[in-house]
Amino acid sequence: MNVATQRAGWSRLPLRAAAFVVLTCVTILGVTGWREWAARDAVLKGAETEMANVARSLTQHAEDSLDLLDSGVVGTVSRLEMDGTDSATITKLRNLLEVRKKAMQRVHSLAVIDDQGNWLTSPGTIASTLSDDAFFRYHQLSPKREAYVGRPVKSLLDGEWVVTLSRRFNKPDGSFAGVVLATISSRYLSHFYEQFEIGRNSSVSLMYGDGTIIARNPNNEKFVGRSVADTSLFRDASLQGPSGTYHFKSSLDGVERVSFFKRSGRYPLVLLATVDKDELLAPWRAAAISRMLFVLALVMLIAIIGAVLVRHLQRGQRMAAALVEKEAHFRLLAEGSSDMVTRIGLDERLRYVSPSSVRVVGWRAAQLIGTPALAGIHAEDLPQVRAIVDAMKRGETEEARVTYRNTHRKNGEVWLESNMRVTRKDNGLVDGVVAISRDITEQKKLETRLETLAIEDSLTGLANRRGFDERLREEWARAYRERSSLALLMIDVDHFKSYNDEYGHPAGDACLRVVAQTIAAEMHRAGDQAARYGGEEFAVLLPNTDAAGCARIGERLRKAIRGAGLVHSTNRPSGCVTASFGGAACRPALERTAGVGTLVEAADQALYAAKDAGRDRLMMAGEVARLLPKASGQ
Predict the structure, then answer these.
(1) pTM of structure
(2) What average pLDDT does the chain have?
């Protein structure tokens, strides 16, 4: 084995070791996750089986209950068709039906209705007829003699929700004579379902074929009569079979449930038994978390041991590479230079760092060698630097200069300026980048300070006239694009000349600072801007604000300035410093011929109106659309 082959195998060793560690950790996590998921599926399957048994039992109970009602209805129909509907027969039937009702708890009511919809037998006098009810119309129009189970309705006897079962009885000539009606109370069904303990947040619902809830436990009174026809149980073609499992988020109470539905084969009924999915999975989840924490601890231990191994291998590689490239590194050093000199490999790691790195970034050269070259660059500047480095690695750019923010070990963050140049092998291929970096933090601070002074008023700390005019043009353009409102307040300190004459110019400057601080303190939105417009005049720019909002803010500012309590003896009758306000608002998108000057002029005219009206008040320019013709001289 030659030296080149040994070096190639050595260079791949850390990668192989890292791949083995990662593969081991991923395999352990994958197998554990698969086992836990299988356990979860087993819990859900068990719940589905339990719900299926409950649904079948309760469906059978509902069918048996209707069969019991139907047997009484059939007997009554036979008696009516044999004996007729004379008063004696009806009296006997009334007594018989009352006895049957008392004997069977599940029967809510039994009644006979004639061919006009009038009650022949009922517990009490009921004035209304049933000629318009669905079950009555069905028997009136259909010659069929089988039982008809109707949608849940409210009983005329006591207002309770009931399910109706009815049969038609005929006159001797075969024509329609009336209906025998029996009902089951929704409350009875709900109380019966309470016997099944299947979970704290479980529910059992009996529904009519069209999705109307007949009975439900819990909260029967809240949900009975409501329709769930828009749920997938009634819309999804895959759920229209006689029975099946059904996972869904309930539209009634928002709980995610595991359920089993069963459709009656003899009556238009659907039984849905459900259990809360979170409650069902809670024991599995607690056990799974414990097991996964143990597995994660094991994986972390394996990962740490593997990382230590890989790090030792990489350190050996870096030492070997450093010996090979030592001569080249020394040639790159600029003797006595205070700038940091680095060499970046094609893997974007630092191959060489000059001793001046301690002064520039706070780290010793030995601490930086082998680390990612772009690791300390600010996230906002990283894309720009990365693009330049990538272009150099591809040979598209030979040299470049870039300014960016970089992390300093002790000073937090510094600005660096780097001059970078590509280095090549003897065969002309790019083998890295050399960068010479210097600290330009103080220069950047000076530039920032100069930029701030250009747009900030030195006395008050607010924006100056120049900064305000730039912001006004920006907000006007933005409001035009977004078709939003823009408002402006012009503020003038009342009788400020007399204040200067009375208390002197230093006191006048202090007064302006207090007014500025008061205005700034009342600016609650980040987009609002206050500025010193000139002398004792201030301006407040209010994006996304209509005339009403502008008036509210202006009145709040006026009260705040007055409430500051600055003594001004010559400002009668208040005796304190006050200010006059002029406000205007508009939608630039609706004023295509207008410009920023129109809004300023409208607010300025309103300010003059406030001063003419007695000062210490706010005047609004009204709808700017009415002021624009005046402002343009039309």
Answers:
(1) 0.43
(2) 81
